[in-house]
Amino acid sequence: MESLTEKAEITVSSLKPGTEYSFSVRTLVELNSTKLESSPVKISHRTSITMESLLRDLGLQNHLKNKLNLKSVLELRKPSDVVETAHSLRSLQWLFLRKLMMVNSSARIIKCASNCNPETCEKSTNIDEDQKGIHPLDLITALFHCADPFLQQEMALKMSVCQFSVPLLLPNCDTNECTLMLWALRDITKQFRSHSLEDDSLEESSIVLTDLPLISFVRLGKSSMSKSELLNKLLSNRQHHHDTFFHKELENGNIPRKISNGLVEMSWYLPGGEKSNDKFKEPVAVANLRGDISDFMVQFTFLSQTSSAVFLFCDDLESNQTFLESLRIRSKLVLVCTTDSANLGDNLTQKFKPYSEILRDRNMNEFKFAETLQETVVDILADSAKMSIEKMSKIAPDLGIIVDENNTICQNAKKRADLITQDITNIPEYKMKELSLQDKIWKEISKLEKEMCRLKAKKQNIEHYKSELKCQIQKLKRQQGSNDIRETIYQFISGLSCSPDEQLYFVKWMKINLDNLTRKHLSRLDEQYRDACKNVTEDNEHLRDLEKEIASSSLGVQHFMRELSQLYESTHSQKNSKYTAMKKLPEICAQLMLTGFPLELIDGDASNIPLTWIRDVLMALNKLTSPHNRIRVVTVLGVQSTGKSTLLNTMFGVQFAVSSGRCTRGAFMLLISVSEEFRSELQCDYILVIDTEGLKSLELSKLADSYEHDNELTTVVVGLSDLTIVNIAMENAIEMKDTLQIVVHAFLRMKEVGKRPCCHFVHQNTAGVAVHRNTLKERKILLQQLDEMTQAAARMEKIGDNKKFTDILDYNIDKNNWYIPALWLGVPPMAPVSTSYSEEASKIPFGLRSGLKNQISYNCHAKE
């Protein structure tokens, strides 16, 4: 476009936002009928972009105020909605979020189809005509702005598990402000083995509370080297390269960034204790500022004050001499440039005197250059200050940086949680004193209630024996109900009775505080236990005492909820003044379940269900969801430590909240909403997912009734379920057979009460392109074994003429078996989740459709 004006200025309209334009200006003068023309002056300028305009293109404009929440993101959608390629710009965010929630390491590789919806593309003002897509960092920035604080936490956690960098400073291009994402990162915990520790010592801690050296990478002006690519080489172990930081060579990396300039991302290098494999002996944090530091001085100043060293990439030292000389940096400054630019800037570096210079000549490849970077970082780490992200939050406000958790609601909830947890020093003693209702009396009641079902009366009269048991139970319940409510429990109830937002913050702060306490307590006990095991003269009694203390040193939100359940149970029948204070608790708990909070169904310590409490919570849930209250139940069973919780979390994108340092105990249930367009097909509005403790538990194996315990647990959850997933670790064949025997007994009992459950088997740690086809023989052998177990179980239970496994449940040898590869791609702590694991696990929920449909038609037929 060419314009001619007699004025010294001109207005150019119809420019696209976020687009770089080149302008050429010439002067025309007519002198004595002679036209003179000056040489053109050229300048480039990128037009600014508003957050609102980009969000409008993504269909997210309403979510700047009405934030996206976890419930909407985890909604179970039709398979056609979960595809690799988005059909419009507005579906990109849902594709990214679904893949991220399922910890799919390819989540950032998203694009619009070549046949992208024309209507959507035409209305987009921020998308280049030849680029149907958006830079992934822009999408991530937009989603963090549009997500509520709890979805932000979940996104950051899942990004960390995928070994993606996470936002530390989130920019807002409309207000030129940035936010320190302290709250968003609070859920991230990391495990590592420092070389300075003993060989078998493992550290686990919250990443925001851990003091670490921070190495920051920034750019001034143009740079021929990609910071992100070099960082990825720096962080990747020798055996496996991973793109922690997104860069221009990845898909859509060439699309210009619109709103993510000024973003500071963070990641970590964590040693695994293998000297031959670890690049750094101690953990280190790494930050990467997107964009030119001259445009983002607030972010650069923050990094210069919090970092052990700042690596500054610059190709033109001479042009930036004035800027460089004006810098006042507390941390060590390392200049990274090419040999050509270094020669031109010799005088500058003599004045400037950086800590170090790293020069790259044209013949040096990136791997060699990355080794040079590594050597410099190792040198800096030998003598560097350390700082946690929480400590950084004290510096941020002085620079005008907003801290995400510095708001009234969040801080009020924190004060409530701190009031409860601040005085906890000895967890077992605290539980006995403050959470006493779930201890000895409840466990004794549980034993008596089990005996009511078993009736091992020996020579006693059965009716007299039952009457005696009932009297003992009633006596214990009265004793339980006579206890005064502890002040701690009143404080906990008060926290749950706050406004919805403060309630969620309170529950989250409780979880954060209790997990931190549990980690510290268990770390100390584990160290004592290791020392005791090394001492060959150590008394076995001392070891057993330590084992008992370790087993009782888990403390989480579920223990406080369990105390409420016992308080509700003990006051419900009496209808006294205590009950008045308790009667709203089931509704509060049901509201929490609707937000994705997992509720304990079976108390894992007492192996019992507080029936009145669970019934009233589910009734409250029924009222809250009415008339859309049809629920189907999916349960997972399997041997301990075979990844059942991980499987469910990947399948549905959820996060079962169990306390730190322990495997799942008992059973937890979590509610997942079904999208409206999928409800008619599944004929339900919600899926209730039940996660169970592992069968064949090592802790319970020493007990005489461990087999009965596993049998009872399996029978209960199978009885509640429409569909049962049996999780099998392929390398554990003996325990697999024992588990299947337990499961078959449970399924057999279901047939006797008119249920015909559906069963699917998930075979973990299997790999191969044609694994399903090549394992047909193994599946037939498995079915043959299941038939034999069914016949044996039928004889033991004295139940009918059941010849085959398929006589008692819905099972298809071809469709009801799933094969999933190993979880990690490499060796933790630096390994991401295998993309194949995530993709195969995410297929399972949609493969369960036929099983749920068959359950519906079978149940309807049974009722008729």
Automatic annotation (TrEMBL):
The keyword Coiled coil applies. Pfam families: URGCP, URGCP_GTPase. It comes from the Eukaryota. Residues 1-53 form the Fibronectin type-III domain. GO terms for molecular function: GTP binding. Residues 628-864 form the VLIG-type G domain. InterPro entries: FN3_dom, G_VLIG_dom, Ig-like_fold, P-loop_NTPase, URGCP, VLIG_GTPase. Keywords: Coiled coil. Residues 448-479 form a coiled coil. Belongs to the TRAFAC class dynamin-like GTPase superfamily. Very large inducible GTPase (VLIG) family. This is Upregulator of cell proliferation. It comes from Sinocyclocheilus anshuiensis. The lineage of its organism: Eukaryota, Metazoa, Chordata, Craniata, Vertebrata.
